[in-house]
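Figure 3 (text version): structure tokens given as input.
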């Protein structure tokens, strides 16, 4: 005894067109399992059974079904949303790029500059991403030994004294 379907499948494509769509979408790997799921529903399988067969949560199966019913094949294309809105505007980014054009800066220095100029706090990792987006590089701090003498290069240069063997 099977349960009656609560949601019907809108047949945007025929069975053969659905099979062709699965073959065509081999380049977009995320869409293929969704189309196979819809094909199972075309074959009168229930959403819980098809979800179990596809090894996906039942709720995700219902989401795929709803998106298929409303938008067809286009509804199955994954929607990737970017992160949150930027904290500083594009004009401020241009101003920052002008400030950084002279000299080499570490991410910590850039982070402090952004805090002083714009009142926005970023992590060092996010500052590195911002600099990459501006097509700029950041300097890496180079450790200097405080015990190194001022004339170290002179002392290490070879003299004209011949080597005796």
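Below: residues designed for each position.
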């Amino acid at each position: 005894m099977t349960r009656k379907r609560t949601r019907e499948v809108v047949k945007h494509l025929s069975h053969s067109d659905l099979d062709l769509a699965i073959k065509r979408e081999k380049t977009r790997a995320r869409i293929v399992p969704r189309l196979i799921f819809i094909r199972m529903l075309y074959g009168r399988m229930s959403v819980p059974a098809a979800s179990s067969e596809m090894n996906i949560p039942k709720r995700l199966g219902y989401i795929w079904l709803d998106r298929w019913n409303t938008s067809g094949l286009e509804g199955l294309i994954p929607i990737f949303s970017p992160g949150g809105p930027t904290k500083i505007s594009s004009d401020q980014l241009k101003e920052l790029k002008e400030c950084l054009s002279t000299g080499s800066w570490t991410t910590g220095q850039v982070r402090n500059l952004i805090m002083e100029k714009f009142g926005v706090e970023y992590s060092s990792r996010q500052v590195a991403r911002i600099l990459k987006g501006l097509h700029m590089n950041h300097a890496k701090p180079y450790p200097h030994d405080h015990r190194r003498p001022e004339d170290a290069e002179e002392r290490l240069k070879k003299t004209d004294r011949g080597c005796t063997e």
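Residues 88 and 120 are 7 Å apart (CA to CA).
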